[in-house]
Amino acid sequence: MGIDYVVGLECEPKEAIGIEEIVGMVKARSRAETILGMARQQGDARPAHQITFQIQLYRNGEITAEDVSVQTLLDQAATLDDHVVACRECPANRDSPTGYGCYKSISYPIEPDTENWLLSRLPAALDETNGAGYLLARALEDFGWDGAQAAEMRSQGERFFRMREAPVRQWPNGIAISSDQLFHMMFHVGHLNPDHSKLLCMFFGLLQIGDTEPPDDDAPIESQNAQAMVDWINSLVFAAANQLELLVDG
After folding, report:
1. DSSP 8-class letter at 214
2. What span, in angstroms and rounded, lies between the C-alpha atoms of 238 and 250?
3. In angstroms, rounded to a whole number, what is the distance separating the alpha carbons of residues 135 and 161?
């Protein structure tokens, strides 16, 4: 389970296969290759159709389990190869050697360093002295980004978040923002249009307003989960700069 996102740049593979189908195939291939690699490392020489494993699917608020073979998933993803040449030439692929780099995901559970790094990216001040910070404070009030959905997910143990309590950053003027609120504005508002992506880029110090200084960004990045969030930020910048929608399934 995780947060899936796709840069909404029209291309030949998306037209021929479909966005949802591409996401499903990329996931299938990734799972199959991971399981097959682990099996080979353990000395398991069985053909791929004899190696089975269980996958968990999150549907309508419930988790279901399903047994599949490695070969079944590889067969499901075979269509990707028919369009990979065109995909590699697409700017949204962003130099991914295997193609389909416009799609990425952030796996659950979200690690502590991921949340702390996001909070560290926010503006140094949330008042008129900081353009991005002033916009952030106004947006929180205007759009009601309260983080309720993320808080409900967090209440379910460590399935979605390692930290049971959302980390909070507080400013001298009394305004406090939690990681749950960040997840609301990033992943729980539906697909992101270019204007929303630009706002997020401002909030995270990726688009400068006037003489506003960039964030200190002192929080360390240690986990693969945090690096996946960095990839999300990079896709956010690409979408905003190219006036593209960012399709999000959080």
Report:
1. P
2. 19
3. 28
**pLDDT confidence of residue 113:** 95
pTM of the model: 0.81
**Six-digit token pair at 175?**
């305004």
Alpha helix locations (H) across 102-223?
112-120, 131-143, 148-154, 179-187, 194-203
Each residue of 145-156: pLDDT tens digit?
Answer: 999 999 999 999
b/e code 179-216 from CB counts within 10 Å (16+ = b): bbbbbbbbbbeeebbbebbbbbbbbbbbbeeeebeebe
Q: Which two tokens stand for residue 134?
A: 């002033």
What's the longest Cα–Cα distance across the chain? Answer: 65
Q: Average pLDDT of 14-29?
A: 91
Q: Delimit the domains of the chain by residue range.
A: 9-105, 112-249
Q: Which residues pair with 240 in a beta bridge?
A: none
Inter-axis angle of helices 224-241 and 112-120, nearest 10: 40
